[in-house]
Amino acid sequence: MIQIDSLHKNFGKNQVLSNLDLEIHGGGIFAVLGPNGSGKTTLIKSILGMVVPNKGSITVLDKRIKKNWKYRQEIDYLPQIANFPGNLRVKELIRMIKDLRQKESKELELIKLFGLEPYLDKKLGTLSGGTKQKVNIVLTFMFDSPLIILDEPTTGLDPASLIKLKQLILQEKNRGKTILITTHIMQFVEEMADEIVYLLEGNIYFKGSVEQLMTKTKQTDFEHAIAAISTQTADA
Amino acid sequence: MPLRLYQHKQLMLKILKYSFYDLMRSRWSYVYFLFYLALGFVLLFLNNDLSKAVITLMNVIIVLVPLISTIFGVMYFYNSKEFTELLLAQPLKRSSIFLGQYLGVASSLTMSLIFGLGIPFVLYGLFRSDTIWDFSLLLITGAFLTLIFTALAFNIALSNENKIKGFGYAVLLWLFLAVIYDGLFLLSLIVFEDYPLDSYSLVATMFNPIDLSRTLILLKLDISALLGYTGAVFKSFFGTNLGLLVSIAMLLIWTILPIWRLAYKSKRKDF
Known about the structure:
The complex is a heterodimer.
Chain A: E1 2-11, E2 14-24, E3 28-33, H1 40-48, E4 55-60, E5 63-64, E6 75-78, H2 90-101, H3 107-113, H4 129-141, E7 147-151, H5 159-174, E8 178-182, H6 186-192, E9 195-200, E10 203-208, H7 210-217, H8 222-235
Parallel strand pairs in A: 3-8, 3-9, 6-7, 7-8
Antiparallel strand pairs in A: 1-2, 1-4, 4-5, 9-10
Helix pairs in contact in A: 7-8
Chain B: H1 3-24, H2 27-47, H3 50-79, H4 81-88, H5 94-124, H6 132-159, H7 163-191, H8 198-206, H9 209-221, H10 224-268
Helix pairs in contact in B: 1-5, 2-3, 2-5, 3-5, 3-6, 3-7, 3-9, 5-6, 5-10, 6-7, 6-9, 6-10, 8-10, 9-10
């Protein structure tokens, strides 16, 4: 699904990703974790082609992404902060994205699921953070793409919507999709993730299941296991 | 047309359409349009003479169009940051996104200019007058200046993450080309007056789109008194018709270069 070989990225003098290799085969939920500034967002943006790597190669669905843009047709991406053009209405935004992608979409179902009907004629600038995030989720899940990338999907959601989101993610997983998630909510990871990719200082420090992580760090609690990684490396 | 190129063009036109609609909803497009409309009516009623009005308009357009295009271009680029980020994750080529947005801004500004000035002049009886060609050339030059300065503004905004800096550079660029450049040019003519300066002043004019536009319009109007030194050199060097062609060609180059840089730089930027 995704193959990354010796990826380098620096912003000025700041080395963000250094010689990163990652291979993700199809199917399942992959949680990309790591402390602030470890390169999670840069990694995701590199896969999406928003950040141009200095060295290395990325292949998505057997296509080299360099100088390519059509592969994004196969990716649904939920950006971290739901920033939308403020003077556009929700309905217009959905129509516009549909027009740009020219793919079959199931937005009506999702609008109903998240109870967005009353907001369809409202301008995006007037929506609350949580409602914007729901619009964001609708835009991401309305297409049927094999790869889904979610950057902090839980931001601003109320408990009821969070449950709906989880169901939605599991539903997509059961249809054989690959889902990449970054989040700081460990409970969410423990509940959802099949595999963890832990980034540290621009490289992959750990890749494996939740159980493997607990064995490796000799912890019984997941949150402590994640915390243990950072302390272990600080001691070393 | 190859399929890839066709798709690229289709998607760019879609972005253009959405940017254009977005701007058509903005109050500023109407303010700009109404300003030209008012200017056109006032000039015609005060002057009561089409060809004099054209000269006054030229002086206004040559300074004002670059200023408004620069400021509008920078403002739009920074304000549509969210929109751009949304588009970057979609299956779109980067050049479609930025060229589409650029053309959206430039075309809405050009339309405000053409309709704002066109309506009063047509009502006044432009079509029955022989100044129609002078007037058309004025609008063409105005359109060129809009395209050039919006493109320059987009380039500045693309290269500067910091809004205040970008805005500052853009205003400085306008100030330099509209005011300071002429001052420096005149100064250099005085300092080097003992040397032959014909080819120097030709080249100096070509390096400034505002001077180039002024020369172009004055050549067409054929008013020697207003032509000035550079205009006179232009005329004696190329003759009126060749002079017109050469200056239009230069304006085209001035348009294409920044658009090309915009496409080139946008491909290599991180978002």
